[in-house]
Amino acid sequence: MSLIGLTIGQARDRLVRKEFTARELATTYIKAMEAARPLKAYLVETPDRALAAAAQSDARLQKGNGLPLDGIPVAIKDLFCTDGIETTAASKILAGFVPPYESTVTANLWRNGALMLGKVNLDEFAMGSATITSARGPTENPWRRRGDNRPLVPGGSSGGSAAAVAARAALAATGTDTGGSIRQPASFCGIVGLKPTYGRCSRWGIVAFASSLDQAGPMTRDVRDAAIMLQAMAGHDPKDATSAPVPVPNFEAAVGQSIKGMRIGIPKEYRLDGMPKEVEALWQRGIAWVKAAGATTVDISLKMTQYALATYYIIAPAEASSNLARYDGVRFGLRVPGETLEAMYENTRGKGFGAEVRRRVLIGTYVLSAGYYDAYYLKAQKVRALIARDFDEAFKSCDAMLTPTAPSAAFAIGEKMDDPIAMYLNDVFTVPVNLAGLPGISVPAGLSADGLPLGLQVIGKAFDEETVLRVAAVLEDAAKFNAVPAFVAGVA
């Protein structure tokens, strides 16, 4: 197997056995990153930094003192602040911003020996489901429909992360998930995407979108790699008031364990009108797989699910309008002069923010304004509590839940751009998990009639990522998903 085809687990073990060096692995991925430039997955490439870190990894490995991720080349979503390297959140308003500090999650990765290949594209300020709202242009999915060469979206907002991993231009990547932004692009690109429990990974140093929903997580080739990455990323952080002071278990040990006797909940509300037959068929296959592994399925009801999207699109924009108020042209980032201070604010934000960000800021400001706060924002928070209560009740009769990840496979760039509601519906299966703060994972489980990846989602109880990983690994073993994107086949 070529170095580019290895998983983190395989690369880690072979580095320890000295079958190749961290420098050789880094050099291979730097070439792959360069080959993937047509996809526009990377915004900033940092090959010199990767090679310098690889030299340190090789020195440790030579002495037998290797770290958990020594020599592993990863891509970082450009929402994580990286000390001395431009961080833009894919927005004009932050063009040229170079943080003098490192996010906690990336600092944890570097402390565990990982190498940074570069910063990858996303929807501007993580607002989108297709990575088409980036100020630096859209990222292309490395997959293509059978017999159709039109470029497809990689999903969003972590589309650059998903495309880089799927195109073999990174061994793994970091993502953030506010309403499905790790799991939905993972489904579209045929990789694994894990959204941990809210508070499992520190948000410190991550450019904020919606503070009560945002959560960092790994995007990888397989379930074991997701466990290995999460192990390195997670942990309590006193700098983040929402970081949970809970121990980090051995996530990798959960992968491969039996699910015999486990109860898997199947929520009836996730059967949507008009859902493609192939998505329903994949779900039924997933149910058969967990039964074959010795689990039983339980029909459950999450009756507030129908209100989840509406609730999310009140709470998330409200928090965004508050978080994005700091971008005013005064302290950092873009400044567009005006005759008055107010004119400078207006000019800067008008030129600096793209259409989707402006839309969400306007919605958020509206629902927080006097006279509307009670009618919209306060009501949405009450519904959010009911959605969380639904999950609590359902988990009394099951250990984990199985659902589709997304209501469709990837669509062509430009297909739904003019219809914000159609775009928002991409997150219908993922949003409830964020509102309840629960862990969820997407596992590639099959191909659509057009030859595109489709994912299954496993949802778990708070801080029970181990069960989520156990069930996900069983699905992965049964699905035996080994299809390769057209891009990789073309480059190989």
Molecular structure report:
The chain is of the alpha/beta class and 492 residues long. The chain has 17 helices and eleven strands. It has helices at 8-16, 22-35, 47-62, 104-111, 159-166, 183-189, 223-233, 251-254, 277-292, 308-323, 341-352, 355-368, 373-394, 420-424, 431-436, 465-479, 486-491, and strands at 42-45, 73-77, 115-120, 172-177, 192-195, 215-220, 263-267, 296-300, 400-404, 440-447, 453-460. It has an eleven-stranded mixed β-sheet, with helices on both faces. It is globular and about 65 Å long. The relative contact order is 0.14. The mean pLDDT is 95.
How is this fold's topology laid out?
Layout: H1 8-16, H2 22-35, E1 42-45, H3 47-62, E2 73-77, H4 104-111, E3 115-120, H5 159-166, E4 172-177, H6 183-189, E5 192-195, E6 215-220, H7 223-233, H8 251-254, E7 263-267, H9 277-292, E8 296-300, H10 308-323, H11 341-352, H12 355-368, H13 373-394, E9 400-404, H14 420-424, H15 431-436, E10 440-447, E11 453-460, H16 465-479, H17 486-491
Parallel strand pairs: 2-3, 2-4, 7-8, 7-9
Antiparallel strand pairs: 1-3, 4-6, 5-6, 5-10, 9-11, 10-11
Instruction: Enumerate how many helices there are, as a single number.
Output: 17
CATH class: Alpha Beta
User: What is the domain total for the residues?
Assistant: 1
Main β-sheet description: 11 strands, mixed
Shape: globular
What level of helicity do the residues show? Answer: 25-40%
Helix and strand composition category: alpha/beta
Q: How much β-strand is present in the residues?
A: 5-15%
Low-confidence stretches: none
Q: CATH topology, which one?
A: Amidase signature (AS) enzymes
Helix and strand run: HHEHEHEHEHEEHHEHEHHHHEHHEEHH
Radius of gyration, CA atoms, in whole angstroms: 21 Å
Q: Order of strands across the biggest sheet? A: 1-3-2-4-6-5-10-11-9-7-8
**What is the architecture at the second tier of CATH?**
Alpha-Beta Complex
